[in-house]
User: Which sequence fits this backbone?
């Protein structure tokens, strides 16, 4: 009687090899569209702080250029806070960090966070990559790449919480993808990370720090 074990083993090994060769889509950082924050027509409701001038960060022979912005994700900007009221009580804030670099294995560290809790899932996560949605919102920092619909360029980026209270987090980028400039100056150009916090006191606003290593 002829044995089928060798053929079966060959097929199993082939299947395992194919699985191992696939990109780690399950580990991809979440994405959020700029339109999740509001439409261009409502820019005064969700922009708390416009894009900053670029700042150059250096560490351990690595260099990155970072631009920042602050968004009210619930479109509830009132009297200089993301609270929807004039009392400055609790509010949600979305901090954007657009990064350009030619260095390898860069850890983008965001610290001094207040009210950060890690939540996963595209469009609803509290961390991830902000992508451009020109059809609805082209007036904020975002990652523009219409030719990468499956987000393959960010598949190898990892995220970790560095402290028990969530006050420090890191995005680790093995190599920075090349992204085209956005359709407007407000969108900028580069890899745009976001961190969403819910602060116990809407005011005074706690600004996070950013650095690399």
Assistant:
């Amino acid at each position: 009687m002829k044995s089928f074990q060798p053929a079966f083993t060959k097929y199993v090994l082939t299947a395992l090899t194919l699985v191992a060769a696939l990109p780690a889509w399950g580990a991809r950082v979440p994405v959020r569209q700029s339109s999740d924050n509001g439409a261009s027509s409502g820019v005064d409701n969700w922009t708390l702080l416009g894009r900053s001038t670029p700042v150059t960060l250096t560490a351990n022979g690595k260099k990155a250029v970072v631009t920042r912005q602050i968004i009210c994700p619930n479109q509830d900007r009132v009297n200089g806070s993301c609270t929807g009221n004039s009392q400055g009580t609790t509010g949600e804030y979305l901090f954007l960090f657009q990064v350009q670099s030619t260095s390898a294995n860069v850890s983008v560290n965001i610290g001094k966070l207040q009210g950060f809790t890690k939540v996963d899932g595209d469009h609803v996560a509290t961390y991830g990559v902000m992508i451009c949605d020109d059809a609805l919102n082209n007036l904020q920092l975002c990652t523009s790449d219409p030719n990468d619909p499956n987000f393959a360029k960010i598949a190898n980026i990892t995220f970790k919480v560095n402290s028990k209270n969530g006050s420090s987090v890191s995005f680790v980028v093995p190599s920075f993808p090349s992204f085209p400039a956005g359709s407007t100056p407000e969108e900028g150009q580069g890899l745009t990370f976001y961190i969403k916090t819910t602060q116990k006191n809407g005011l005074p606003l706690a600004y996070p720090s950013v650095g690399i290593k």
Q: What stands out?
A: Residues 27-212 form one domain. Helices lie at 5-21, 43-46. The chain is about 10% helix and 35% strand.
